[in-house]
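Why do we care about 3D structure at all? Because function follows from shape, and shape follows, mostly, from sequence. That is the central idea of this module. The next example makes it concrete: a single protein chain, its amino acid sequence, and then its structure expressed as tokens.
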Amino acid sequence: KQQLQQLVNQGIKQLERAIELEPDYRTSYIMLGSAYLLANNTYMARGVLQGRYIPRFGTDASSDLLLAMTRAIEGSPKAAQVEFQTLVNKILKANTESGLPEDLLLYSAFYNTAANDLFIGDETAASANWQQLARVAQASGNSLLFRLALGQIKSASPSATTRPAGEVVPAAGG
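And the structure:
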């Protein structure tokens, strides 16, 4: 665990340097926010997103995803559930610009939505989310996302890892 924390801290330093070198590369900010979530530092994750990313690039699906994940980690899974569902609807309605590749964003949104649903005990909603992703992927001809969604439906769990305190571990891509 200590080695993982050291690696995350090294990643944070490298991402901060990347932002210094290329401040208009939005993915570095998203990855930095994700690294802070991995370090269980929601305060800094919010700071990166709300203090640096959103003022520079505006609110988008990537920032919405990380902020919903932050809300879940901070112990507000019901509020996070609303944010995740709003995000999924936003992604499905429009091809939104984001700091993440479209497939990764879509899978991550559904994964975290289902993980949060399972955390609050709503297995029906979690299963419905995976079924919705399977239908969307099938309709768009995206065989990878379709197979991933089917795999989650068959396992009946998004393999969400929980910490002893019951916090959902952020999963950028599952």
